[in-house]
Amino acid sequence: MTLNAILITGRTINQGATIENKTSLDYQEATALCELNSKDIGILGIKPGSQISVKTDHGDVVVKLKENNGNPDGMAFIPMGPWANAVVDPDTKGCGMPGFKGIKARLEPTDKKILSMKDLIARYK
Amino acid sequence: MTVITDALCPFCGCLCDDLTIVVENNKITDIKNACKLGSAKIMGHHRIEAPMMRADKKSEFKEVSYDEAINEAASILFKSKRPLMYGWASAVCEVHKKGILLAEEVGAIIDNTATVCHAPSTLAVHEKGLPTATLGQVKNRSDVVVFWGSNPVHAHPRHMGRYSVFAKGFFQEKGRKGRKVIVVDVRKTETASMADEFVQVQQGSDYLVISALRAILSGHADVVPESVGGVTKEQLSKLVDTLKAAKFGAVFFGMGLTQSISRYKNIDNAISLITELNAYTKYVITPMRGHYNVTGFGQVCSWETGFATAVDFARGAPYYNPGETAANDVLMRKETDAAMIIAGDAGAHFPADSVRHLARIPVVQIDPYWNPTTEVSNVVIPVAICGVEVEGTAYRMDGVSMRMRKMIEPTLPTDVEILEKITQRVRELRGE
């Protein structure tokens, strides 16, 4: 029911196509998701489309599970954006760049709902 | 009805210059040749219609006049001891010039979106230089193309068609059939699925893999273990043979290198590999720049200040030290006491800790669209869209500058007009 994974973030075509429309549900659908391969999804015991909790040393976020068999075992991918950035490593390692890739994450099924962009950012106020 | 041909796309660093735009009654009604990313931006979305302000970030915005918003923005920058001015990549170079002047006058740190993209590449270029070429050269000459830690199918959809993989060129008449395409990535991406050779590295192992390739290339295969970063020595040796056999090799790299553990050292090592390959044949390396004019900010900032980004004017003269003066450095240290975010979205693309600090300090946003930065702003000034409603200069990912024409007339002020007025107001507040 729990999966320890290495998290990376990055661009996707749907993230890019909705990037100037971040208040839309389309943007949330494109970026509030976590991709795992089918073997890892099997470990979690839930189906793609279910909510998944992603926790790291830097935060936690609930996103939608998506299958991507291009991922190696134990690799989670969240498209770049506010949901991914809730859990990335802020340390710039002395060169200005935070840790957007290679973060240890714990993934679990959850019933919690996915926060909207506004509600997600409201957590920081 | 007006038809604009050979229009430039204001989305990604490919800066495609072959779009056809149909305009009716100052509205764009059709686009030809653009990819999904470019079409989505040019066809437009919901805009912020009027300037807005609020004192408390938990309260609702109230619409105000442009003069009120500009006065408040100037007052915030004037009162700030450590202002940050961040964004810039979705604006033309003329905007950058005005922004850098304002940053100098208020003693700000000015940084652009490269800070979460290719700024580590700039650090590597300081160390090693950049053996590179225009995309035209790649199109006309390349017979080996490598994408390392980049996924153009998603991030630069027309790159392969126009410049690299499929493009037919003067010395490369066969296009795709005349090229070997190699993809190095941690995931089997859609780009990797189209490659002749996919090299799957373990996340965070790029530096090791590049070092192994350099060792084999220099005749020291004996020191390379049987597997490096998840790649077999056999595949690495085969890869070196393929690279050496090229007449003209082009390597494109992305966030897989800049954002992984070794950051700029990955690029430093990759540039060394390219330099060494040039002992055998011709090789070039180019960063896959994200925003259409993120390269332009680096150019303007370099000629105005001597540095490409993360420039600190607090001392009265430009000072640059990413790790100390980059946007996330100063936000994470809670050093910044006010911010202006323009033509970039720190609220969406910075780690939570940085956004948390933005939520605590006065923030001015200058942008056409409502986004996560709006959610943490006090003053929001909507503007015309550069490259669609505003003409100006932009730089393609290979450093070629091009003039963007206006597609339609703006209905809102431009970034340049707003920055000029803020600068004027700051001077008045200083008693000049």
Polypeptide structure, described:
Chain A is of the alpha/beta class and 125 residues long. Chain A has one domain: Barwin-like endoglucanases, CATH 2.40.40. Helix content of chain A is 23%, strand content 33%. In chain A, a hairpin with a 2-residue loop joins strand 3 and strand 4 (59-67). The mean pLDDT of chain A is 97. Chain B is built from 18 helices and 21 strands. Chain B has helices spanning 36-43, 66-79, 93-106, 119-128, 135-141, 152-155, 159-162, 190-193, 206-217, 233-244, 255-258, 264-277, 294-305, 327-332, 346-349, 352-358, 372-375, 415-429; strands at 2-7, 19-24, 27-32, 52-53, 62-63, 83-87, 109-112, 144-148, 180-185, 197-200, 227-228, 231-232, 248-253, 282-287, 311-312, 319-320, 338-342, 363-366, 379-381, 392-395, 401-404. At the A-B interface, strand 1, helix 1 and helix 5 of A face helix 1, helix 4, helix 6, helix 8 and helix 11 of B.
Relevant terms:
heterodimer; A: 125 residues; alpha/beta; Barwin-like endoglucanases; six-stranded mixed beta sheet; 5 helices; globular; B: 432 residues; Rossmann fold; Dimethylsulfoxide Reductase, domain 2; 3 domains; five-stranded parallel beta sheet
Give me the secondary-structure topology.
The complex is a heterodimer of chains A (125) and B (432).
Chain A: E1 3-10, H1 13-17, H2 25-31, E2 33-36, H3 38-44, E3 51-56, E4 59-67, E5 75-79, H4 82-85, E6 101-109, H5 117-122
Parallel strand pairs in A: 1-5, 2-4
Antiparallel strand pairs in A: 1-6, 3-4, 3-6
Chain B: E1 2-7, E2 19-24, E3 27-32, H1 36-43, E4 52-53, E5 62-63, H2 66-79, E6 83-87, H3 93-106, E7 109-112, H4 119-128, H5 135-141, E8 144-148, H6 152-155, H7 159-162, E9 180-185, H8 190-193, E10 197-200, H9 206-217, E11 227-228, E12 231-232, H10 233-244, E13 248-253, H11 255-258, H12 264-277, E14 282-287, H13 294-305, E15 311-312, E16 319-320, H14 327-332, E17 338-342, H15 346-349, H16 352-358, E18 363-366, H17 372-375, E19 379-381, E20 392-395, E21 401-404, H18 415-429
Parallel strand pairs in B: 6-7, 6-17, 8-9, 8-13, 9-10, 13-14, 17-18, 18-19
Antiparallel strand pairs in B: 1-2, 2-3, 4-5, 4-19, 7-15, 11-12, 15-16, 20-21
Helix pairs in contact in B: 2-18, 3-13, 3-18, 4-12, 9-10, 9-12
